[in-house]
Each structure stands twice: as C-alpha cells, then as structure tokens.
Amino acid sequence: MKAGIYIRSTALLDDTYFEKTILFITEYNEKGAMAFVVNKPFPRRFNELAEFSDSPPFPLSEGGPVDLEHLYFIHRRPELIAGGVPVKEPVYFGGDFQTAVELMNNKGITEKDIRLFIGYCGWDANELEEEIAEGSWEILEEVELF
C-alpha cells in the first residue's frame, strides 16, 4: 500500500458513510493513512463559506467524516503553490492555502488545477490493510481527479 492509489468501497460498507465511495490516498506511512472521498460533492460551494464569500464558486467535496471544521486541498500546480507534498505525479497535497485562495480569486488556477475538501478519512497503523483484507475496500486503477 502507498500514497497515490485509489480505493473503492464494497457492499460491506453499504449503509455506512462510505457506501459507494471512491477514495484517493494522500498519505501512507507507519502511523497510518489519510485519504479523501473524491466522488461526493459537498452541497455548498467555496464562496458560500462565510470567510470566502468574495471568492469564485469553486466546488467543494466531502473529503471524509474526520475534522469537518477544516478545508484540505490537492492540486497539480506546485510551481505556483509552495509547500505541497508530492503524492503521485502530478498531484500534490496541501501547501500554502493563502496563495491557493489568491490564485483562485485572480483566476491563476482553475477547477482543473485544485480540489477542495471538507474533512478527510483517516486510519491508524494497519487499520486500512485490515479493512482491505476483510473485503471492505478494493484497489482501483486511475480515477480522474480534476
């Protein structure tokens, strides 16, 4: 298992938050894993969040059930957004959020460059491997992120 792969929930997760979800794993190490749901749109847009009301209406996605108070992002513009962690070429996780917002506001980046998430999915060490072994998740080939 490694960062940069996609997993899809199986019927074992029906009737849970994860029913029919596809996740992109952005971090994987000895402490556990972090991922974002990539196929659940959030019902509001970026500019509908109070502090970003002057920004364009970028789509938001439900990233997962953990830490719903924060925004997270992945992007493919490391030459414009410093501090991102490479996940899988050309995708980077996080970075300078203020710069990302400025770029969104002045149209320096588009929806084809960045994905915004509310919340994330997380597992402690070995949890995700156990869930895959029990058949809750299946590993997928490429999924279009942007």
TrEMBL record:
<dbReference type="InterPro" id="IPR003774">
    <property type="entry name" value="AlgH-like"/>
</dbReference>
<protein>
    <submittedName>
        <fullName>Putative transcriptional regulator</fullName>
    </submittedName>
</protein>
<comment type="similarity">
    <text>Belongs to the UPF0301 (AlgH) family.</text>
</comment>
<dbReference type="Pfam" id="PF02622">
    <property type="entry name" value="DUF179"/>
</dbReference>
<dbReference type="GO" id="GO:0005829">
    <property type="term" value="C:cytosol"/>
</dbReference>
